[in-house]
Amino acid sequence: MLAGNHFFKRKHLFGGFLKKPPRGSVSLSDLFGENIMERIIIFDTTLRDGEQSPGASMNVEEKLRIALALEKMGVDVIEAGFPIASPGDFEAVKLIAERIKESQITGLARATHGDIDRAWEAIKGGSDPRIHTFLATSAIHMEHKLRKTPDEVLAQAVDAVKHAAKYTSNIEFSAEDAVRSDLDFLCKVVEAVIDAGATTVNIPDTVGYAIPSQFGEMVGQLIGRVPNIDKAVVSVHCHNDLGLAVANSLAAVQAGARQVECTVNGIGERAGNTSMEEVVMGFKVRPDLLDYETNIVAEHIYNTSRLVSQVTGLAVQANKAIVGANAFAHESGIHQDGILKEKTTYEIMTPESVGVPTNELVLGKHSGRHAFTERVKELGYALDKKQTETAFSAFKKLADKKKVIYDEDIEALIAEHVMRIPDRYRLVYLNVTAGTVTVPTATVQMEIDGIVQQEAAFGDGPVDATFSVIKKLIGRSPNLEKFSMSAITGGTDAQAEVSVRIEDGGLRANGQAADTDIIVASAKAFVRAFNKLEHRGKKVFTPSV
Ligand code: KIV
Ligand code: ZN
Question: Which of 114, 446, 459, 461 is packed most tightly, with the most Cβ within 10 A?
Answer without folding.
Answer: 446
